[in-house]
Design brief:
Blueprint lengths: L2 H13 L3 H14 L4 H13 L3 H14 L4 H13 L3 H14 L4 H13 L3 H14 L4 H13 L3 H14 L4 H13 L3 H14 L4 H13 L3 H14 L4 H13 L3 H14 L4 H13 L3 H14 L5 H12 L3 H16 L17 H15 L18 E7 L6 H12 L5 E7 L7 H9 L2 E4 L5 H10 L4 E4 L19 E4 L14 E5 L14 E5 L30 E4 L8 H13 L4 E5 L3 H13 L7 E4 L4 H7 L5 E3 L8 H8 L4 E4 L8 H8 L6 E2 L2 H12 L2 H17 L5 H20 L7 E2 L9
Parallel strand pairs: 1-2, 1-4, 2-3, 4-5, 5-6, 6-7, 7-14, 8-9, 8-11, 9-10, 11-12, 12-13
Helix pairs in contact: 1-2, 2-3, 3-4, 3-5, 4-5, 5-6, 5-7, 6-7, 7-8, 7-9, 8-9, 9-10, 9-11, 10-11, 11-12, 11-13, 12-13, 13-14, 13-15, 14-15, 15-16, 15-17, 16-17, 17-18, 18-19, 19-20, 22-23, 25-30
Length: about 775
C-alpha cells in the first residue's frame, strides 16, 4: 500500500473510532519513514484523544520541528496541551496557528478555551466571537462562547449562544446541557428541564445532564422525579460522592430520612472529607431527633468547610438546643468574629440566641440573603394598578397549622373588616389536619395551599391572585419559603411576627414593630421601613381558654408548698448566664423549684448536671412534658413567677403566661428578640417587671420570689388589666393593623416609595 493510501486508510479508521487499527497503520508508516510529518502529527492527535497526551504532544512537536508552518498541527498541539491543563503553553500554540492562518475558526475557539482555563474570561469571549465571525455555522464555537458567558454570569447572552449551537446541531448534547444550566440560573426551571432532557435524548448516559436535571427538578419540588434522575447517575457513576449526596437531599425533601442518611453516609464513605455530605447528614439526624449525632456531623462539616458558616451556625443552634454551652462557646465566638470580619454567610436565626446587637444581626441576615437568595429575580409585579374594591391581603407562612405563630394570628384573621379587606391565607407548610388549621381556613376568604410548589411558582401564584399586600409570617425561620417574595409578586411586601430581627432582604418593604421593640436609637439595625403600632406588635387570640385559679400543683408533679419559678421557652433560648441566675435563685429561696419544658433529653440531662455543679439538687428542676396548647395553658396557674430568657425572649409563651395571670420578669436588651417581653409587659400595664440588665433581673426575681403576697397581687393586677389594657384588646389591635395596611396600600397605589410611619392609637374597646 502506497504511503498516501495508507494515511488515508488510517484517517478513515481514526474518524470511525477504530483507534487501534488506525494507530497500527500510522506506526507502520513511521517504521518505514520516521520523519513522515502526517503520520507523526496524526498519531500524536490519536494518542492525545486516548488520554495519552504526553506521548501525543511529543509526536506533534516532532512533526512541527519538521514543518514549523503547519497551522493544524499547532492547533492540535494546543488541544493536547490544554487537556493536560497546560493552558499557557496551549495559548502560544493556538496563537501560532492563528498567525499562520488568521481565519482558522477552530484555533480561535480553542484559544478562547485556553483563555477561559486561565480565567481570562472576557478575552475568551472575544476569541470565540472571532471564531464565529469566521465560521458562523461553527456549533462548537457557539457552545464554547456559551460556556465562557456562563462563567461570567451573563446568563441571557449564554442562552442566546447555546441556542445558536443547538439550532446548528440539534443533537449537540453539551450545548443543550449548557443551555439548561443558563436557563436554570435565570429560574426558567421548566425550560431548563426540557433542555436537559434534550441533552439526554442525544446522549442517554450524559452524567452531568442527569445531575443538572435532578437539580432543576428539586428546585421545582419535583423530588420523586429528581430521585429517578439521581439513581441513574449513581448507576452510571457509583463512585461519585456528590451524586450520593444529591440523592440524599432529594430523599430528605420527601422526609425519607433514613434513606437520605444512608445516601449521605455512602457519600462520606467514598469521600471522607465531603463537607456538604457531613452537613446534610447532620440535617437528616436532626430531623430524626438525634441531636447529639447531628451536632457531631455539623461540627465535622464546619471543620471541612471553614469558609461556609452554614454548618457552623447549625452546630451552634443544636449545641444550644441541648444546653451544651461549653461545647457551643468556641463556635459562638468564631461565628461572631467571622461576622465582624464580614465572612459569615450562614442562617442568622441561631445568632439571635447569642447576640442582642441589631446591627450585627442585620449584617448576618444581609450576608445570608446575598449568599443564598441573591438579587437576580425578575419582578412579577411591575407597577400595575389593581382595581380591587377591597384591599387584598395574603398571610404567607409555612406555620398555618398547630404552631405558636398560627395561634397568635388566628383571632386577627377572623376579626378583619371584610368590607375593607379580602383575606387570603397562603400555606407553604404541611397540613396537620388540626382544629387550628381548620379555624384559620374558615376565617379567610381563601385558603391557598402552595406546599408542593417551587418558590417561583409560589410567587407566580401570589401574582395571579393580585395580592395588594403579602405579609410574610416566617422570615429566616426553619421551613420558611419567604424567598419566593424575591420575585416581587405584590406591590407591598411585609415582614411580620415570625422572625424577631431584620430580614435584610431587598424585596421586603416594611416590618411591623412598636416603639418599645425598636426605639429610634436602634433603627439602624433594620433594612425595612418600620411601621410602628401604638401598643405591642404582638397579636393575641382572645378566644383562648382561660384556666381557672387557684392552682393544682400535684397534678403536675410539683410540691404544694414553696415558690414555683417557671420558663416554658424552648431550650435553645436558655443561656448559661441566665441559668446561673436561676440556680442562685433556687439557692436563695428555700423550697423553691424551677419548672421547665422537657424539650429534649440532652437538654434535660445537661441542665440537671449544670444544677448539680452549682450545688443545687437536680431534683429541684422539674420538667413538663410536651402537651396540647389547652393543657399547656391549664398548667400555667400552678406556677408563681415566669422567668424570661435573654437575649432571645419568649413571644407566644410569654403571651400565654400573661393571659393566664402569671407574672413575667424580662430583661430588655437592644435587639428585637430581646425586647419582646418588654413590649408585652408595657401593653399589659406592668412596666415594673421589665429590667435592663441581668443584675437587675436577678435582683427583681429574688425580691418577688421572697414575697408570695406581692406575686399574688401582681397576678390579680394582670387579670384585671387583661380586660382594661391593650395587650389582649383584639378589636383595637385590628384597627391599628388595618390602618397600617391601608397606608401601605395607599402609598403603593399612588406610586409612592415605601417609607416608615406610625399609627395613631385608637380608643380602647369597652369590656
Amino acid at each position: 500500500m502506497a504511503k498516501a493510501d495508507a494515511i488515508r486508510r488510517a484517517m478513515a479508521l481514526h474518524r470511525s473510532g477504530r483507534f487501534d487499527a488506525a494507530a497500527k497503520i500510522y506506526r507502520a508508516v513511521l517504521a518505514a519513514a520516521p520523519d513522515d510529518v502526517d503520520a507523526l502529527h496524526l498519531l500524536g492527535v490519536l494518542l492525545s484523544a486516548q488520554q495519552q497526551s504526553s506521548a501525543g504532544i511529543e509526536l506533534i512537536r516532532r512533526a512541527l520541528a519538521l514543518a514549523p508552518n503547519f497551522a493544524s498541527a499547532h492547533n492540535n498541539l494546543g488541544t493536547a496541551l490544554l487537556a493536560e491543563t497546560r493552558a499557557e503553553e496551549a495559548l502560544v500554540a493556538f496563537q501560532r496557528a492563528i498567525d499562520l492562518k488568521p481565519d482558522f475558526a477552530e484555533a480561535h475557539s480553542n484559544r478562547g478555551n485556553a483563555l477561559a482555563q486561565l480565567d481570562r474570561l472576557e478575552a475568551a469571549v472575544d476569541s470565540h466571537r472571532h471564531a464565529i465571525a469566521h465560521q458562523p455555522d461553527y456549533a462548537e464555537a457557539h457552545n464554547n462562547l456559551g460556556n465562557a458567558l456562563i462563567a461570567l454570569g451573563r446568563w441571557t447572552e449564554a442562552i442566546e449562544a447555546c441556542r445558536h449551537a443547538v439550532k446548528i446541531r440539534p443533537t449537540y448534547a453539551k450545548a443543550h446541557n449548557n443551555l439548561a444550566v443558563a436557563l436554570g440560573k435565570l429560574h426558567h426551571y421548566d425550560a431548563a428541564c426540557e433542555s436537559f432532557r434534550q441533552a439526554l435524548a442525544a446522549s442517554p448516559d450524559f452524567v452531568d445532564a442527569h445531575r443538572g436535571l435532578a437539580e432543576m427538578l428539586m428546585a421545582t419540588d419535583r423530588h420523586q422525579e429528581a430521585i429517578a434522575a439521581l439513581e441513574r447517575v449513581v448507576a452510571l457513576r457509583p463512585e461519585m460522592a456528590e451524586a450520593h449526596n444529591s440523592l440524599g437531599r432529594a430523599l430528605s425533601a420527601l422526609e425519607r430520612t433514613a434513606a437520605a442518611a444512608a445516601s449521605y453516609r455512602r457519600a462520606i464513605a467514598l469521600e471522607p472529607d465531603h463537607g456538604p455530605a457531613h452537613h446534610n447528614l447532620g440535617n437528616a439526624l436532626l430531623a430524626a431527633g438525634s441531636l447529639d449525632q447531628a451536632a457531631a456531623s455539623y461540627h465535622r462539616a464546619a471543620e471541612l468547610m471553614p469558609e461556609d458558616c452554614h454548618a457552623l451556625l447549625h452546630y451552634v443552634q443544636v449545641a444550644n438546643a441541648m444546653c451544651a454551652w461549653d461545647s457551643a462557646a468556641p463556635a459562638v465566638e468564631e461565628t461572631l468574629e467571622r461576622l465582624r470580619l464580614g465572612r459569615c454567610n450562614g442562617p442568622p436565626l441561631p445568632l439571635l440566641g447569642v447576640s442582642d446587637d441589631p446591627d450585627l444581626n442585620l449584617k448576618a441576615a444581609h450576608a445570608f440573603v446575598e449568599a443564598t437568595i441573591g438579587r437576580d429575580h425578575a419582578p412579577l409585579w411591575q407597577g400595575e394598578a389593581y382595581q380591587h374594591a377591597r384591599i387584598r391581603l395574603a398571610y404567607f407562612s409555612c406555620h398555618l397549622r398547630e404552631h405558636p405563630a398560627a395561634r397568635l394570628i388566628v383571632d386577627l384573621i377572623e376579626r378583619h373588616d371584610r368590607s375593607q379587606f379580602e383575606v387570603i391565607a397562603v400555606s407553604s407548610g404541611p397540613d396537620d389536619s388540626s382544629q387550628l388549621r381548620r379555624r384559620i381556613a374558615a376565617g379567610c376568604d381563601q385558603f391557598v395551599d402552595v406546599e408542593a410548589l417551587s418558590d417561583l411558582a409560589i410567587a407566580q401564584r401570589l401574582r395571579a391572585l393580585e395580592v395588594d399586600i403579602v405579609i410574610d409570617l416566617d422570615g429566616h425561620t426553619e421551613g420558611s419559603r419567604s424567598r419566593a417574595l424575591a420575585w416581587r409578586p405584590a406591590p407591598a411586601q411585609v415582614a411580620y411576627l415570625g422572625y424577631p430581627a431584620s430580614l435584610a432582604a431587598p424585596y421586603i418593604d416594611y416590618a411591623i414593630v412598636d416603639h418599645v421593640l425598636v426605639p429610634d436609637r436602634h433603627r439602624s439595625g433594620y433594612s425595612e421601613h418600620l411601621v410602628y403600632l401604638p401598643d405591642s406588635f404582638l397579636p393575641s387570640d382572645g378566644q383562648r381558654w382561660s384556666p381557672p385559679r387557684p392552682r393544682a400543683r400535684s397534678a403536675h408533679g410539683l410540691p404544694e408548698a414553696g415558690v414555683v419559678l417557671c420558663c416554658f421557652n424552648g431550650a435553645h433560648k436558655i443561656t448559661a448566664p441566665v441559668f446561673d441566675i436561676w440556680m442562685r435563685l433556687l439557692q436563695a429561696v428555700p423550697g423553691s423549684v424551677l419548672w421547665l419544658m422537657a424539650d429534649n433529653r440532652w437538654a434535660e440531662a445537661n441542665l440537671k448536671s449544670a444544677a448539680g455543679q452549682q450545688g443545687v439538687d437536680p431534683q429541684r428542676l422539674r420538667f413538663a412534658p410536651p402537651a396540647a396548647h389547652r393543657d399547656g395553658l391549664g398548667r400555667l396557674p400552678a406556677a408563681d413567677l415566669c422567668l424570661d430568657t435573654f437575649p432571645y425572649n419568649g413571644g407566644a409563651t410569654s403571651n400565654d403566661a400573661l393571659w393566664c395571670g402569671l407574672p413575667l420578669i424580662t430583661c430588655c436588651g437592644r435587639g428585637f428578640a430581646s425586647r419582646m417581653g418588654a413590649s408585652l409587659l408595657g401593653a399589659i400595664g406592668m412596666p415594673e417587671l421589665v429590667t435592663t440588665s441581668l443584675a437587675e433581673y436577678e435582683a427583681l426575681a429574688l425580691e418577688l420570689a421572697r414575697a408570695p403576697e406581692r406575686l399574688a397581687q401582681l397576678s390579680g393586677a394582670l387579670v384585671a388589666n387583661k380586660v382594661h389594657l391593650p395587650l389582649f384588646d383584639g378589636e383595637r389591635f385590628r384597627q391599628h393593623l388595618e390602618a397600617a395596611y391601608s397606608e401601605m396600600s395607599r402609598a403603593s397605589r399612588a406610586g409612592e416609595p415605601p417609607s416608615s410611619f406610625a399609627i395613631e392609637p385608637a380608643s380602647l374597646t369597652p369590656p
